Amino acid sequence: MTKTCKGFKKGYQHSRSTVGLTVTANGEVLRPMLILRRKQPYILKIDNKINLFMCNSPDGWANEEIIIKWLDSVLLPYVKNNECLLLWDTYEAHKSKKIIEWLKKHQNINVGMIIGGTTDSAQPLDLGINRIFKSACKAKALSYTNTLLEALHETNLTDQNKQSEKLQIGNYFL
What we know:
5 strands
């Protein structure tokens, strides 16, 4: 007899986001993209010092609309009418009908597809930038989390001391 139970996922996969980095052949970093898993757009509460290109999608992944917005807002202003080679992987949205139609209108942008399964060895960003970027993000996130935990710990200790003092005072007067 087999017993089954329904499983559930909890955690990071439900707060998924995608970061898109673009680096030119001469090493210039273009406007970074952040896609948040949300139905409604997110409004930053701090200054957008790096001119972050923010989007949202139900699953936190890039889709045709987001890619076209990025092409129009980030890539086109950079390349203007100059010839360009855009290297990207074989992600389905990159090969969609809408994207191909958009590219046909912009003959100066040539696309090179990186063969599936070779991204880690053939994609320039994965070879030289993404690992360093991810390590820096993890270090910053850990530092930020530690700072929050320390502040929370200090607050809790202070609250516990206040509670303790009240009890002692209460006991003294009883």
